[in-house]
Amino acid sequence: MGNYRWTICSLLFFATTVNYLDRQVLSLLKPSLEDEFGWTNSQYADIASTFQITYAIALLFAGRIVDRLGTKKSYSWAIILWSLGAIVHALSIPIGEALLPVVGGIGIVTVPASVLGFMFSRAILAVGEAGNFPAAIKATAEYFPKKERSFATGIFNSGTNVGAILAPLSVPWMAKTWGWQAAFIVIGAIGFLWLIFWWTYYDRPEDQKRLSKEEHDYILSDREETPAAAPGTPMAKISWYRLLAYRQTWAFTFGKFMTDGVWWFFLFWLPAYLKDQYQMTGTAIMLPLTVLYSMTMFGSIGGGFFPVYFINRGYKPYDGRMRAMLLIAFIPLVVLAAQPLGGISHWLPVLLIGVGASAHQAWSANIFTTVSDMFPNRAVGSVVGIGGMAGGLGGVVVTKIGGALFDHYKALGHIETGYTIMFSFCAVAYLIAWVVMKSLVPRHKAIDDL
Prior knowledge:
Elements: H1 4-37, H2 41-69, H3 71-88, H4 92-105, H5 113-129, H6 132-143, H7 146-178, H8 180-201, H9 213-219, H10 240-243, H11 247-278, H12 286-311, H13 317-330, H14 338-341, H15 347-374, H16 377-412, H17 416-440
Helix pairs in contact: 1-3, 1-6, 1-7, 1-8, 1-11, 2-3, 2-5, 2-16, 3-5, 3-6, 3-8, 4-5, 6-7, 6-16, 7-8, 7-12, 7-15, 11-15, 11-16, 11-17, 12-13, 12-15, 13-15, 13-17, 16-17
């Protein structure tokens, strides 16, 4: 039997790496950009939440588009759009100045040009990046049997970690050497290179000449649904209203709402945390953030493999996954110690937050796969889109509350209290999510009436 499915997994991994490289550039430049443009934490939260709310709304439609266009075309359009969006950040100041008369004409006069321009650029980036996970999850459902999906998802999802690692190793240096605009342009251009390989190596399994019959039969070995329709065959539309009638949809949606904001917080606010609490900026943050995000690799890959232990002992995929997720949900509690121990050395919160972030990636690899465990392939993209929208909205709530807390406690002279409150939420969010998910779907039940 061949292993071509792992070639597809590697393509998904590299796309996700590029996705997170583009996403994280702004947070790494936040400490210097806020000094240059005079941003408050609340204004930075407005910029970050613009990405999140646009991403949330776009995810809802991205899943539908992926199901309609198919994986190959939808992924291509997504990476073209998000790469252009990343590059547009370099023009945020003139864009903001051009938009000021427009927003002034509708009565919005308190937004600085720099904030407005970056909000516009983040919105474009968000629309494109929303296509990554629905397309990647659908490709995984197409190319992997259920027993391998969480492991494959863990591998491609580890691209988020690699992107998060490569960004602090490259972006501060680029900004220091060539200017912050060049950092956006160079990182944004990488997506177009990936596109060449995607069009060369990806086709549906039914059309893939590089896939052996043995491997194709293995991919279909544990499916509970009929094979994919032939090219050109129209599929019946599955309404969002119908999908929302299932408890399985709500379980995934609530899990994403509660936990995605934690990862957003770790991505968008940790550079600011190192500056606010330890006065670290520029290239000084490279090593701590590289170490922290390197730790998340273990959670992403190990978390995807963990449920196999239970599945191999007779549990159905969903039931084995939920057992693994319960154990994973306890791990972020170590983040509660980040602030109490932070006075000893900045490395202690870095390492403890790294453990919590690693647990998030293990959780993420499994929660995504619960969708393909229970829904037919043609509904996977839409359900992932609904849950992703909820996760984005959760991220908006976390970001806006975080920005307000940090400005409030900064004015009082002890910003560390704001971070203590936010880290406490990050620590307990997963246990809350698991309890609600398990209550909604106590045991595995495949959806077979769509």
